[in-house]
Amino acid sequence: MKIGFIGLGNMGGPMAANLAKAGHEVTGFDMADVKIEGLRMAGSAAAAAKEARVVITMLPNGDILRKVADEIIPAMGTGTVLLDCSTVDVESARDVAAQAQAAGLSALDAPVSGGVGGAAGGTLTFMVGGDEAGFNIAKELFDIMGQKAVHCGPSGNGQAAKICNNMILGATMIATCEAFALADKLGLERQAMFDVVSTSSGYSWSMNAYCPAPGIGPKSPADNGYQPGFAADLMLKDLRLSQQAAEAVDADTPIGRAACDLYADFVEKEDGKGRDFSAMLPRFETRGRG
Ligand code: NAD
After folding, report:
1. Which of 21, 162, 185, 269 is catalytic?
2. How far is the CA of 177 from the centre of ligand 1 (A)?
3. For 281, which of 80, 161, 197, 272 is 20 to 30 Å away at the CA?
4. What is d(CA 1, CA 109) in angstroms, rounded to the nearest whole number?
5. Residue-wise pLDDT tens digits, 194-225
6. Catalytic site residue 162?
7. Helices 232-248 and 157-185: angle between axes, nearest 10 degrees
8. What pLDDT does 188 receive?
9. Are the C-beta atoms of 19 and 141 separated by less than 8 Å?
10. What does the alpha-carbon distance between residue 253 and residue 160 come to, in Å, rounded to a whole number?
11. Using a 6 Å CB cutoff, which residues line ligand 1?
12. What is the position in ligand 1's atom list of the atom closest to the CA of 116?
């Protein structure tokens, strides 16, 4: 398949490389001067999109996606697919999809979970919004770049699924970290805390699969000095998108908002920038109630 790939950063680079390795003809474009093995590089986003059956975008935010969409949609042929894998606000995803559909294209929003490791290993999970026809064309590409693709409904629903999931993740990580810090002060050993909670009703992915306490549970970024993993900065981005969406539809999300405020302090006022999002535990360890 002829594929255009725009945005070849930490995630897009390895995803595009995996498509090329699988035998697809991938033409790439990035604003920065990057080279990816197996890709032919184009001089503009529109040139990368021209003649492609599917154009994939993997960009930093909704404003950039809108700008790139304005450039590439006129260059794409009727019936081709615009597949955005970036994490962006629901409104931008829906507006870009409407713009693509008006030009006779299929549009999918397909944000991912799995991070840079998942992108390199081809083990991402895609949460997909958009039409069935586009999903069926893109399916073979999801199978190369990832291990699972869930069709969540119409345009924007992929982004909705991603931010709802990550709102739960941010909140449960904070709850897990504050509970560990409380347990420390109560004299409860971390191993005992893990053994109880991971098999009791307080269990979660944050505790069981990504335990924020070093040396406890399965290997996680806590065992590697809280090098990300999933950076607190990216968690903050996703929590902000969740609150932006909640405001747009008048949804009451008090815990999501509290999680967003805490990660904002952690990243912007404390030492959280560039650290894994589970480094909330050392943050709580050193604090009292005041
Ligand atoms: P990145 O900053 O490494 O890559 C973005 C790339 O887009 C850069 O190479 C940049 O030069 C390029 N770019 C920016 N504006 C452009 C333009 N107008 N035209 C062409 N290229 C342009 O970011 P990333 O980590 O690869 O993340 C990409 C997306 O994936 C984001 O939306 C992010 O939230 C999401 N995401 C990231 C992770 C992760 O762990 N890094 C995990 C899940 C989802």
Report:
1. 162
2. 29
3. 161
4. 20
5. 999 999 999 999 999 999 999 999 999 999 99
6. yes
7. 120
8. 98
9. yes
10. 14
11. 6-12, 29-32, 45, 58-60, 64, 67-68, 86-87, 112, 115-116, 234, 237
12. 40
Q: How many CB atoms lie within 10 A of CB 84?
A: 32
- Tell me which residue has tokens 């996606």: 65
Between the CA of 286 and the centroid of ligand 1 the distance, in Å, is 34
Residue with the two structure tokens 């032919």: 40
Angle between helices 132-145 and 12-21 (to 10 degrees): 90
Q: Are 233 and 87 in contact (CB under 8 A)?
A: no
pTM over cut 0.85: yes
Find where tokens 């975008």 sit: 57
Rounded to the nearest whole angstrom, what is the distance from the C-alpha of residue 106 to the centroid of ligand 1?
A: 22
- Which ligand 1 atom is at minimum distance from the Cα of 234? 34
Distance (Å) from CA 39 to ligand 1 centroid: 17
The residues facing 54 across adjacent strands are 3, 81
**Could you read off the pLDDT tens digit of each residue along the chain, which spans 290 residues?**
999 999 999 999 999 999 999 999 999 999 999 999 999 999 999 999 999 999 999 999 999 999 999 999 999 999 999 999 999 999 999 999 999 999 999 999 999 999 899 999 999 999 999 999 999 999 999 999 999 999 999 999 999 999 999 999 999 999 999 999 999 999 999 999 999 999 999 999 999 999 999 999 999 999 999 999 999 999 999 999 999 999 999 999 999 999 999 999 999 999 999 999 999 999 999 999 98
Residues 6+ apart with CB under 8 A from 82: 55, 57, 69, 72, 73, 76, 96, 97, 100, 105, 106, 107, 108
Find the DSSP H helices in the chain: 12-21, 45-49, 62-72, 90-102, 115-121, 132-145, 157-185, 190-197, 205-208, 232-248, 254-268, 280-285
